[in-house]
Design goal:
CATH topology of one domain: Cytochrome Bc1 Complex, Chain D, domain 2
CATH architecture of one domain: Orthogonal Bundle
CATH superfamily of one domain: Cytochrome c-like domain
Structural class: mainly alpha
Strand content: under 5%
Radius of gyration: 27 Å
Largest sheet: none
Length: 249
């Protein structure tokens, strides 16, 4: 092979590539439009990049509460949704997304998310005619009664006492779990359920005996009483023992 001809051929190919050989002669190069992140106003794109990792691609089957749950959408209003998206939810893993609270989304983008969530998953008549416990707690919970209500409504799936570790639906009083959810999140899950994961709402925990507002309040109070001051850390007695053993070394 003629080395010079081979070299010249490579040079021509490279020149065509750099010049944009995909364009017709005389056609100007058109750069792809670059959209700033704060200019995105499409719900699907905003939801996919900010919400789907926790709430699921289609609003369900994620680690956080299912936004496509019509019962949840019926008990929470738009103002509450907007506040949680913008400012986050203390005591949970829900961060603040609004720029005003240190996030990356503009107020308009937060509004796009709220309206998109409602238009996709809110059903006005979802709970029509039903006596539904309200989203917000109205009074104080009775811890002792809450344990009784838990045993009657929740223990068959979540177990009770030492059984909770091997319960088919997992322990909901595990210290690590309770460290990731606040009382309001617990209340919302008990009322709305997680139908995408097979968890019933307030009507199906004990078939034929829907939980009342006070039942939900008491169960949450009992679960909250199980929180540890140092979740995920050794118990104080273990810490003291470890210190004592170190001193004797």
């Amino acid at each position: 092979m003629n080395v010079r001809r081979f070299r010249d051929g490579i040079f021509v190919l490279c020149s065509l590539f750099l010049a944009g050989c995909d364009r017709s002669p005389g056609t100007p190069r058109v750069n792809a439009e670059v959209v700033r992140p704060d200019e995105i106003k499409d719900f699907s794109r905003l939801y996919a990049s900010n919400c789907s990792a926790c709430h699921g691609r289609d609003g369900q089957n994620g680690p956080a509460i299912a936004l496509a749950n019509s019962t949840y959408q019926a008990i929470v209003d738009e103002d509450r949704l907007r506040s949680v998206i913008a400012n986050g939810e203390p005591g949970t893993l829900m961060p603040a997304f609004a720029q005003s609270a240190g996030g990356l989304l503009t107020a308009e983008q937060v509004d796009v998310l709220v309206k998109g969530i409602r238009s996709n998953w809110y059903k006005a008549d979802a709970l029509k005619g039903l006596d539904v416990p309200p989203y917000k707690v109205n009074g104080q919970g009775d811890v002792a009664r809450g344990q009784q209500v838990f045993t009657a409504n929740c223990a068959r799936c979540h177990g009770s006492g030492a059984e909770q570790k091997s319960a088919k639906a997992g322990s909901v009083t595990d210290g690590s779990y309770l460290a990731l959810v606040n009382d309001q999140a617990l209340r919302a899950i008990i009322i709305a359920g997680r139908p995408d994961l097979g968890h019933p709402d307030w009507r199906g925990t004990a078939p034929g005996h829907p939980m009342s507002d006070q039942d939900v309040t008491d169960v949450v109070a009992w679960m909250a009483s199980q929180r540890l001051q140092t979740p995920g850390q050794p118990y104080p007695s273990q810490q003291l023992s470890a210190v004592g053993e170190k001193d004797h070394e």
